[in-house]
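#data-curation
PF: Archiving a pair of folding outputs for the training set. Convention for this channel: one message per protein, sequence first, structure tokens after, nothing in between. First:
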Amino acid sequence: MRLIPTTICCCALTLWLAGSACAQGTVYVSNEKDDALTMIDLATLAIKGTIPTCKRGRHLQLTPDRKLMLACSDSGVADLIDPATGESLRRIPLGDDPEAFDLSPDGQTIYVSSEDDAAVVFIDVATGKKLKEVKVGQEPEGVKVSPDGKLLYVTSEVASLVHVIDTASGKVVKNIKVGKRPRRMAISADGKELWVTCELDSGVTIVSTADHAVLATLKFEVKGVRAQDITPVGIQMSRDGKRAFVALGRANHVAFVDVAARKVTDLVLVGKRAWNVALDKNENRLFVVNGLSDDLTVIDVPGAKPIKTVPVGRVPYGVVVVE
């Protein structure tokens, strides 16, 4: 019986903070300079601990079997972590200075960009062996696999290209010219559009996945902020495909975008250098890591307003919600 008041208190706090039902789960944040993940309780939004990892952890992703995979640039590996125990299960070699990656839909292959080698590398998860290496433009970063696993999209920051690669053959089948310094990507819920954030163009390039033609460009504007300081990087789409959430980097805001109208509906002020974003399961809260203020902003999505700032580690980079 003593647990009942605690549960009521937990739900009341969560309702007050986010207007949602009592949530159970953890928000994980990678911190480049702390070699650790910060864990945040989803219900109370309080820090619940840290997990030591390899050096300079950056891109963080949930695998199909619900493990955490973290790319560590200075260690050259992916750290595979069991969120149930916080233990590292094993470390998979990724090559020099890995930053971004994606997994095949079956979770058996890692596709990781190799910036120094101007290549994307295919790695077998089970054995850690390199399967293929595909040359692309200089300074590749963002990596995104199509929902059916047949195509791989890779951004080249220097060439301002998105390379389309056939995963079966490892051949580049198309090079798409996009905005300056393309970084990250999201695929619409219907699979028909690829949205590419372009850091030095203050915008997003929208590409058809049918013929890989550029459909439109969406430019961001923030009152009182110079265009060169609007540097979009992280992006996530809602499950229904109606909205996109874009972190605007040095502009210290997140843009809420109506996908069909290709129009910004809200701008939400967050911390310094909004870098990557993640939604909770109910899509009531958006979590934003701020790389220069060493914190995470929690946004109430229905109200389009920040509700809490949580200090995390030094230079937070990636964020994943596990429920």
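PF: Second:
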Amino acid sequence: MPRGVTGPSVRFGVPVGALGFALLLGAIILAIAGNDPIEAYRTMFDASLNGWKSQSRTLALATPLILTGLAAAVAFQMRVYNIGGEGQLYLGAIGASWVGLALPASTPMPLMLSAMLIVGALAGALWALLAAIPKAYFNADEIITTLMLNFIALSLMNWLIFGSRSFWRDPRRPVPGGKRLPENAVMPSISGRLHIGIIIAVVAAVFLWWLLRKTSWGFQIRTIGDSPRAASYAGMSVRLKTLTVLALSGALAAIAGVSEVSGVTKGLEPVALTTNIGFTGIIVAVVARSNPLGVVPVSIFLAAIATSGSRLQSIGINVEVVLLLQGLIFLTVTAGEFFVTNSVSLARTDATATETEAAA
């Protein structure tokens, strides 16, 4: 039965319990396969969180996950399902790399990076609007349209590097690849692969939380998500909010592409950018229950699991266990969502109740 209003102990206890249950299931599977679960989890911890070098590697992977998780979360708040974060990330990378290559190399870094972020975000927002407009005006299924746009974006990015002599492609390289961005178009490094994109991602999470929780716009988004008819009756523009939410979602996913192309690949490199970060962001949003602040620790947790994959191989454990653990976490936390909003009680059937009353 529905719980009604849930307290903090339920809202936070159930997801934490679901994560613990997922790790327990993972330990059982590891033991059945003949591996030592304690050694496996210790290795995962050492590879991802033990020491600054490991932590910086994990935070570097968590950076785009936070942004794609926020992209999915803001759409989910209005019960709009943006499955196109992957394609929007590609468009952000294409737009940002174009700016970085087109502007003079002597352009001051703050101006260069700002322009890359703005153009990249606009590219992702416009790409998302290709699905938002049919959704808003014709009630087209946004799951299908955003999913299909992923493949178009991937094909476009591959064509720019592998199938044409475009502005992005470096003709001097024997193997097709993107032109390298100038120094002023590269995000400053904090440590190794970790760059200032992590700061942008965390600031975006805080800003989005404020926008959704402390503004009338956020209130309208949540109201429309709960009941579009009631929101429309109250004078809220469901059509306009659909457009703005999907555009914002696309912009956030695109900023993840800007972060990757400027901070990691340093050029438009399709092979390096095709890592399913956009799809993993959907898992992040679900596990975080679409809470922007919750997206940050969930992204770090999943990044920690992912970064430990290569180290697991060194102790004889197949790297596929990483995907297994991610899948278990997704399933258990999704199932746990039922217990956040519902309570389970053992109710007597009518026949049992009748027999009890007769005996009395």
